[in-house]
Amino acid sequence: MALSKVDSIAIGGFDGMHIGHQQLFEQLGEKGAIVVIETGYANLTPGSEREHYSHYPIVYYSLDDIRHLEGAEFVAMLKERFPHLNKIVVGYDFHFGKNRRYSHSNLGELFSGEVKVVDQVSIDNDSVHSHKIRTKIQIGDITGANRFLGHNYCVKGSVIKGQGIGKTDLVPTINLECPGFLLPYEGVYAALTRIDDEEHFHPSVVFVGHRVTTDGSYAIESHILGETIESCERASISFVKFLRKNEKFDSLDSLKQAIENDITTAKRELRHLSL
Questions:
Q1: Which CATH entry fits the domain spanning 152-270: 1.20.1250.20, 2.60.120.10, 2.40.30.30, 2.60.120.470?
Q2: Percentage of the residues of the chain whose pLDDT score is greater than 90
Q3: What's the predicted TM-score (pTM) here?
Q4: How far apart are CA 138 and CA 135, in angstroms?
Q5: Among 159, 166, 240, 245, fewest CB within 10 Å belongs to which?
Q6: pLDDT in tens, 157-179
Q7: pLDDT tens across 197-237, in order?
Q8: d(Cα 265, Cα 144) in Å, to the nearest integer?
């Protein structure tokens, strides 16, 4: 859809595209669009990753490029970009303009169309915010993070060479480098892994952290359950359940036994999913 035809927009940072954000998107019509103000802090859905969680077109503005605008100038910028704009949707805590001095009430005064303000979204009396999701991911509460997101937390990256002992001494893994994404708490996870452009996910055990038993380097490793992936260039990991913390083992045999236990646990955690 051409942006010139857009008649409603939702404005925000929208890192994570979580269930609170989705409430804003539900207020858009058929000719809606999403306006993302990039602050430089997005690491749940960095860059264009947001586009996987909505069918609406997304327009990006860098905060550094517009932070000097007064309120009327900000609204004029939007009207120039979207000439048929008649509805703006924002969250209850939305602020804009120079020094963030303008709120949704000012927006209603400056914009001639409808301004829809969406109230705070909570789960069990706990308000949903991107910073809370980040905290949950960093402490290993991936279940809580996914509940706030409304989807599994996912990281993507390029496949890189591992330390070389997985296939020979432990289990074969895909090793990833995922720049730009917030990486979860160090440990082992039941997860789903997508290879290159495949449509389906593979049940997996994923390790994130320092290889304290072997070379000490930081790694993101996915073992595909019941399969050996011979070659791939990219992969994405969808985290389902935290299994255990990162541990140092006395030997490779002990580490391999722990991995086998992880595989058994992951199979149990993932068996209810239809892939």
A1: 2.40.30.30
A2: 84
A3: 0.93
A4: 5
A5: 245
A6: 999 987 665 555 678 899 999 99
A7: 888 899 999 999 999 998 889 999 999 998 777 778 999 99
A8: 19
Q: What is the 3-state secondary structure (H, E, C) of 213-269?
A: CCCCCEEEEEEECCCCCCCCCEEEEEEEEEEEECCCCCCHHHHHHHHHHHHHHHHHH
Max distance between CA atoms of the chain, in angstroms, equals: 70
Full DSSP string of the chain: --GGG--EEEEE--SS--HHHHHHHTT--TTEEEEEEE-S---SS-GGGGGGG-SS-EEEEEHHHHTT--HHHHHHHHHHH-TT--EEEEETT-EESGGG-EEHHHHHHH-SSEEEEEPP-EETTEE--HHHHHHHHHHT-HHHHHHHHTS-EEEEEEEE---S-HHHHS---EEEE-TTSPPPPSEEEEEEEEETT-SS-EEEEEEEEE-TTTT--EEEEEEETT------SEEEEEEEEEEEE----SSHHHHHHHHHHHHHHHHHHHTT---
Domain 3-127: CATH architecture, name and number where available: 3-Layer(aba) Sandwich (3.40)
Q: What is the pLDDT of residues 23-32, one digit of tens each?
A: 999 999 999 9
Residues of the chain within CATH 3.40.50.620 domain(s) are: 3-127
Residues of the chain with CATH 2.40.30.30: 152-270
